[in-house]
Amino acid sequence: MANLAIPTVDFSPFFIDDDDQDGKNNAKEIIKQACSDYGFFQVVNHGIPRDLIKRALKLSQTFFAFPDEEKLKYSPGSAAPLPAGYNKQPEHSADKNEYLLMFPPQSTFNVLPTNPPEFREVLEELFTYFARTGEVIERILNDCLGLPPNFLKEYNNDRSWDFMAALRYFPATETENNGISEHEDGNCITFVIQDEVGGLEVRKDGDWIPVIPAQGTIVVNIGDVIQVLSNNKFKSATHRVVRSKERSRHSFAFFYNLQGDKWVEPLPQFSEEIGEAPKYRGFLYKDYQTLRMRNKTHPPSKPEDVIHISHYAIST
């Protein structure tokens, strides 16, 4: 039987006690093992104020409780890499949720609500904290992979494509409970805050592990970009959301992303320099993101036709 829990990492050595080298080393070991196995872990003492998280979830509940005509005032504009603003999954989609998506606070793509009045300010503050935590985890992954100092930071130095979504999942019906279908994330690193309803599950060794909500905890998972760069040394996490019958589920997901014009391919440190063949052909990140968006806007009739990172895998 697999160990049906995901590891929890104390981040206080990175945010509170910078001199705690033993604490940092212990955290890195846990993260390295988790990323090698299945790409998921949780963090506490991560520097994001608990009160801010509570306010964000509360205001999100208020916003999504508004009538559709109010929410649709914040529908996406054009030209953004992803549809920034309010969106609802189409009726034919297997995913049953609505969401509000934003880019960095200074982005001209954003279409943020003015109602409830404090929501925009709280969203922008939460985004800023998430971005800082992303930089810390990026440095940790850099060390765990044995890359030169600041390698990932210099490779991924444009934060303009980072995005955050506030999500509401509708209650399950008698016949189906899918919130988001089984998938991996296409970006670098994802953070999730979920309310007490829960529903997030991660797959490990063929088992689905429920991620039990805990106040002050952020769930972290590795995305496809890190899996490709590391030539499968680190795993992109497979996960899903299962809906509850009793009530809606509210959550926030932050995507520490990659700018669209970046070229993605296995790094030489994990391929030719160690005598291993690259497991993926290179690609422009924006091309992959376009394919993934098409999965959502035009869902394939057969599950095997959904585009995953395996689309770029090199057959051996």
Strand percent estimate: 15-25%
Widest β-sheet, arrangement of strands: 1-2-10-7-12-5-4-3
Largest sheet: 8 strands, mixed
In total, how many beta strands? 14
Quickly give the structural class: alpha+beta
Structural Rg:
19 Å
Low-confidence stretches: none
Mean pLDDT: 93
Cα separation of the termini: 31 Å
Helix-residue proportion: 25-40%
Give the overall shape, derived from the CA principal axes.
globular
Protein name: Flavonol synthase/flavanone 3-hydroxylase
Pfam family, one: DIOX_N
GO molecular function, one term: 2-oxoglutarate-dependent dioxygenase activity
Keywords: Iron, Metal-binding, Oxidoreductase
Structural summary, described in words:
The chain is an alpha+beta fold and about 325 residues long. Helices cover about 30% and strands about 20% of the residues. The chain has eight helices and 14 strands. It has helices spanning about 10-15, 20-35, 50-65, 70, 120-145, 150-155, 225-230, 285-295; strands at about 10, 40-45, 85-90, 95-100, 165-170, 180-185, 190-195, 200-205, 205-210, 220, 240, 250-255, 265, 285. It has an eight-stranded mixed β-sheet with strand order 1-2-10-7-12-5-4-3. Helix 3 (about 50-65) crosses helix 5 (about 120-145).
Defining key terms:
316 residues; alpha+beta; 8-stranded mixed β-sheet; 8 helices; IPNS-like_FE2OG_OXY; Flavonol synthase/flavanone 3-hydroxylase; 2-oxoglutarate-dependent dioxygenase activity; metal-binding
What is the topological layout?
Elements: E1 8-10, H1 12-15, H2 21-37, E2 40-44, H3 50-64, H4 68-71, E3 85-88, E4 97-102, H5 119-144, H6 151-155, E5 163-169, E6 178-183, E7 189-194, E8 200-204, E9 207-210, E10 218-222, H7 224-229, E11 239-242, E12 249-256, E13 263-264, E14 283-284, H8 285-297
Parallel strand pairs: 1-2
Antiparallel strand pairs: 2-10, 3-4, 4-5, 5-12, 6-11, 7-10, 7-12, 8-9, 8-11, 13-14
Helix pairs in contact: 2-5, 3-5
